[in-house]
Every structure is written in structure tokens, then in C-alpha cells.
Amino acid sequence: MTMRSAYPTISAEEAVARLRHGDTVAFSGFSPAGGAKAVPRALAARARAEHAAGREFRVRVLTGASSGARIDEDLAASGAIAWRAPYMAGSSLRKAINAQEVEYLDMHLSHVPQTIAFGFFGAIDLAVVEASEVTPDGRVYLTTSVGASPTYLQHARQVVIEINHHHSPRV
Question: Rounded distance, CA 140 to CA 125, Å?
Fold first, then answer.
């Protein structure tokens, strides 16, 4: 772990090493835009490694809406998803849901923040959001997706911010 500004910098692998089987992970994104990229890839790799070692490892997944292949396809193909809401898109995940291997709750994105604030989904163990900047006083400037991200940041036990330098600061 290295220090950059007032906040520690960790790798995606270090972030997912903190997760336990059954934890809830909330990702930013509205389609792949503004979605986490490195942590989902590391989470899929961790799930494959845990399963290869004979250990159960699946997490509950929340997103801003559809999330693209990094989350729905990669995590489903690696067997990392136990539960998914509020929306999904991807053939691997759809097959797992239809085979009743993954629990799924389809709901409108606009209902997610209130549902989380009232605790209906339980605790969010880790929020992973993409941002262009984090200021020294802790303000997070999201990239191309907002959606439920502020709620995820507010209610998560731990937060990982993926800085995307392809966006200008304070988009």
C-alpha cells in the first residue's frame, strides 16, 4: 500500500482480498460508462482461484443499472455472483439466474437508493466507484455515471475509488 494524498492507494487485488464469501459489493456504472473496471476483473480472478482451491466464494452484487461485460459476464462466468440487483444484462448471468444458481431482483434504479438507505438489502460491505478525482477533503468527482453511486458511497463499510485519468478532473 502506498500513500497518495490523504488516502491510501491499493491495488484491485488488495481490495478484493478484503472481501469474504457472502459480502455485498456495490459498483458504479450505467452500462459500462462510469463503471468500475479493475476491481471486477480482480474479483473474477479471486473467485476462480477460491473455487480452484475448493473454497466457496460468491458475493452479492449491486450496480447502477446494466453494467456491461466486466461485471455481468466476467463475474457470472467465474461463479462469483450469488445475488444480483437491480438490473442485469449478459447471457452468462441470465443463464445462471434461469438455472437458479444466482438469486436476482429486478427493480427500477430509482428505487435503489431508498431501498439501501432503509437497509432492505442489508449492509454494503464494499462500494467501488469510478471517479476522475478525490479532493483532499474527501469529495469524489464521479466520471460518466452517477445513479446510485452517492448512496453506495454513503452507506458502504469500505470504499474503493477507481481513478480514471482518461476523464478530466471534476467532470
Answer: 19
In whole angstroms, what is the distance from residue 130 CA to residue 64 CA? 12
Reported pTM: 0.92
Strand locations in the chain (E)? 2-4, 7-9, 24-27, 59-62, 81-85, 103-104, 124-134, 140-142, 156-163
pLDDT of residue 70: 80
Beta-carbon contacts of residue 19 (< 8 Å; ≥ 6 apart): 25, 43, 46, 59, 125, 126
Please name the residue ranges forming H helices in the chain.
12-17, 38-52, 74-77, 91-98, 112-117, 149-155
Write out the three cell numbers for 54: 475448493
Average pLDDT over residues 110-137: 94
Number of Cβ within a 10 Å radius of residue 2: 7
**Contact (CB, 8 A) for 21 and 58:** yes
pLDDT above 70 (res 131): yes
Pick the residue with more confidence: 70 or 24?
A: 24
